[in-house]
Amino acid sequence: QVQLVESGGGLVQPGGSLRLSCLASGSIFSTTVMGWYRQAPGKQRELVAAFFIGAATTYHYADSVKGRFTISRDNTKNMMYLQMDSLKPEDTAVYYCMRRPRGQDYWGQGTQVTVSS
Q1: Which pLDDT does position 86 carry in this prediction?
Q2: 85-90, long-range: CB < 8 A, 24+ apart
Q3: Do the Cβ atoms of 24 and 85 come closer than 8 Å?
């Protein structure tokens, strides 16, 4: 089993910044994908940013967040982060971290991010 716990969400004004964190525990070896998704009210869950881990690690960002969001990780602490800068009201959503060890997807419980003046 794998457990993922997000933190760092909150209310921020447009143009502000937040950093989300995701702590993983359990059987996380052989992870091939780590990422952040979000789901706004009335919309489908969408990929925001992810690592794809193979012979080399590649990064993916949704077009809507390129240049504003940065995904990172600290393997020594089993942590993954999402630095979100220049936030916009349309970034308002519940943000979920995801991890895929050995072909199985695991999700955190989500953390609310609200961008509003």
Answers
A1: 98
A2: 85/17, 86/15, 86/17, 87/12, 87/14, 87/15, 87/16, 87/17, 87/18, 87/113, 87/115, 88/14, 88/115, 89/14, 89/115, 89/116, 90/40, 90/64, 90/115
A3: no
Alpha-carbon radius of gyration of the chain: 14
| Residue 14: partners with Cβ closer than 8 Å, 6 or more residues away | 87, 88, 89, 115, 116, 117
**CA dist., res. 37 & res. 111, Å (int):** 11
pLDDT tens column, 54-66 = 889 899 999 999 9
Q: Between 96 and 54, whose confidence is greater?
A: 96
pLDDT at 29: 87
